[in-house]
């Protein structure tokens, strides 16, 4: 099976994530998109929203899509999160599957700084998608392991969602309906 892996903090998961996942199904011709909430991000070892809550929001959201799935293979029990380690675990548990790591184009700017970047380029296919906050991409300068897809971006950020909740604005057009009330309740009760 061909699986696109979409990792992130998902704090909270939002319709922009769903948009990229749907585009991955169509453009990469993958069988599934696997959403992987990060447990302990290497550059941000604490998160205001506990992993279990972010995982549950992600699970509730992707449940209604037959070609989406959620994985806990990057939960805090695995220690500090690095893409290399996640992909090694996924491959060990699913040796018959092919994994493609997908993300927004804003990541391209710092990809060369990722842990064991050379290993990643040798062992992982990356697919990046347009984001409104990303710099223009010169596709001719990308390594062969990196694909770029120019899609109509959905300009949503998790920060924007948290700010909307804090200021009493609607998040109906930003967050999947399955988790809207949970997200509002959490951020209203945990506004720091």
Task: Walk me through what this model shows.
It is built from 6 helices and 8 strands, in the order βαββαββαβαββαα. With 192 residues, it is of the alpha/beta class. The protein is globular, with a radius of gyration of 16 Å.
Question: Brief overview, please?
Answer:
With 192 residues, this protein is an alpha/beta fold.
Top keywords for this entry?
six-stranded parallel beta sheet, single chain, alpha/beta, 6 helices, 192 residues, two-stranded parallel ribbon
Instruction: Report the total helices.
Output: 6
How would you classify the quaternary structure?
single chain
| Computed structural class | alpha/beta
Q: Indicate the percent of residues in helices.
A: 25-40%
Rg computed from alpha carbons, rounded to a whole number of angstroms? 16 Å
SSE layout:
Layout: E1 2-8, H1 15-28, E2 32-37, E3 40-41, H2 51-62, E4 68-70, E5 80-81, H3 83-93, E6 98-104, H4 117-123, E7 125-129, E8 146-149, H5 158-167, H6 180-189
Parallel strand pairs: 1-2, 1-6, 2-4, 3-5, 6-7, 7-8
